[in-house]
Amino acid sequence: MKKKRLIPVLLLKNGFLVQSKSFKRYQNLGNPVTSVKRLSEWAADELIYIDISREDVYDMRRDDLGHYNRDNILDIIDDVSRDCHMPVTIGGRIRSLRDMAFRLSKGADKVSINTKALEDPGFIEEAAKEFGSQCVIVSMDAKSVDGAHRIMSDGGRQMTGYSPAEWATIAEEKGAGEILINSIDRDGRKNGYDIDLVSQVVDAVDIPVIALGGVGEWEHFSEVLEKTDVDAVAAANIFHYSDQSVYLAKKYLYEKGHLVRQPDLLLEEVNSRR
After folding, report:
1. Percentage of residues in the chain with pLDDT exceeding 90?
2. How many C-beta atoms surround the C-beta of residue 263 within 10 A?
3. CB burial class (10 A; 0-12, 13-18, 19+) of residue 105?
4. In whole angstroms, how far apart are CA 179 and each of 138, 171, 212?
5. What is the predicted pLDDT for the residue at 34?
6. How far is CA 55 from CA 3, 80, 104, 120, 271, in A?
7. Distance (Å, rounded) from C-alpha 259 to C-alpha 225?
8. pLDDT beyond 90 at 164
9. Does residue 64 carry a pLDDT above 70?
10. DSSP string covering 211-235, please?
11. Is the full-model pTM beyond 0.90?
12. 137: enclosing H helix or E strand
C-alpha cells in the first residue's frame, strides 16, 4: 500500500531562508543550505524548496560564515542538490519551460509552478509534455474570502475567480502530476491545517495532493491524515526549532499507526547513501 509522505518546506527570500507568517511577515533564518543537510539527515521523505523572492537579488550580506554567498538561484539550487539526499522539488519564479529546464538540470527532481499556471493554464500542459507529469507540481495558495475559499496568485496578492476544486480539476486535466495546496490564512499560525480546504481539493482530483499551512504540533499531521485522503503532509516553520524534528514527527505518526515509512529504517537508508 502506498505510504504517506512527510515533507519539510524551506522558503528562500533574497538569499536567506525565512520563516513566513500569513505571506506577509518573514523572519530571517540564515544560510540557504544548512537546513537542507540537516533535514536530509533526519530522514524526510522529500523536500520542497520555494524561492519567494520578489526581486532577482540573492545576497546573505555575510562572507565570514564559511559558506559560499551565492548571488543567483541556480547556484543556490546547485548547493541544495549537493547536500540533499532525498527527492527535491524546486518552486518559485517559474515563468517559462527554460526556467524549469535549468532547475531540473541543477538537480531538482520536480518543479512546482503557481502564478504562471494561473496566467496561462496551457503552460501546465506544455510542461507536462516537455518534462513529464511526474515533474510538474501545481502549487495552489488559497484564502478565505467572504466565507468561501478562493485561489490567489502572485504570492497571495491577487484573487482569481477559481475555487480550489475548480482550479485543481483544471490543473489535473492539463497534466499536473501533483497538487500542493497551501492555506494563506493558516500560514505560520500554528493552529492546524484547514481541513475543509484540503478536503475540497482531495475530493476533486485523483492525482496526489500535498497539504501545507498551519502545523504547530505533531497532532496536526495526524488530524489531516485521519480526516482527508491526502497523499502527503508538508510543513515549514515547525521543523526549524527542535533537534531531529522530522524524525520525531515521523516517529509520532508511525507509532499512531499512520501508513508512513518506518523512521528508523529510513534513517538507515539515508546513512547508507552518505
Report:
1. 75
2. 22
3. exposed
4. 5, 8, 11
5. 85
6. 38, 20, 22, 22, 38
7. 9
8. yes
9. no
10. EES---SHHHHHHHHHHS--SEEEE
11. yes
12. strand 136-145
